[in-house]
């Protein structure tokens, strides 16, 4: 499966270096480009067509509102922020930002958010007040996992996320190992994910 592609936008070189390790090595995204925030970023994104733009909301010397509005027209956008002001983040959501995470999130949370928006969902769970906006919180029966997988596949996916082997899952569900392996293959295809680690990250994002 083709890895999702990513452009990193931050004025902080050290942050970009850390994000490259998390997203490229640990989370299996392809980093197309890393760039400081400038008026040329939208043109770069337009040319590269990344699946996701990972945007640092504290750029130096540039208006993030203008930049975010333009980027949201061109790609899915994941915002990292140390800013918790309700006005700023609510405006970001209104522009069409797909995910917002505070910078004290873990690498696993960041990976989960990126995978979630790569397949067309949103992620706002560690910014509590944003979840008050009803449009951001789908009803429980409309969670992405239950919409895309059968009941048995959901069971298998949850056990995969716990790190269980196909043999262990087969014993737990009283089905054949080959049946489990078929379900695992179908789960990856339906969710457009590359491996079991990505399934675990996806489920940890609240999709189960």
Summarize it.
With 208 residues, the protein is of the alpha/beta class.
Number of domains: 2
Low-pLDDT segments, ≥5 res: 136-143
Strand content: 5-15%
Q: Strand order, biggest sheet?
A: 2-1-3-4-5
What percent of residues adopt helix (DSSP H or I)? 40-55%
**Under CATH, the topology of the largest domain is which?**
Rossmann fold
CATH class value of the largest domain: Alpha Beta
Task: Describe the protein's architecture and organization.
With 208 residues, this protein is α/β, with parallel strands linked by helices. It folds into two domains: 5-136, Response regulator (Rossmann fold, 3-Layer(aba) Sandwich), CATH 3.40.50.2300; 140-207, Arc Repressor Mutant, subunit A (Orthogonal Bundle), CATH 1.10.10. 51% of the residues lie in helices and 12% in strands. It is built from ten helices and five strands. It has helices at 13-26, 41-48, 64-74, 86-95, 107-118, 144-148, 151-161, 166-173, 177-191, 196-207; strands at residues 5-9, 30-35, 52-56, 76-81, 99-102. Strands 2-1-3-4-5 form a five-stranded parallel β-sheet, sandwiched between helices. Strand 1 (5-9), helix 1 and strand 2 form a beta-alpha-beta unit. Helix 2 runs parallel beside helix 3 (64-74) and helix 7 crosses helix 10 (196-207). It is elongated and about 60 Å long. Mean pLDDT is 80; it is low at 136-143.
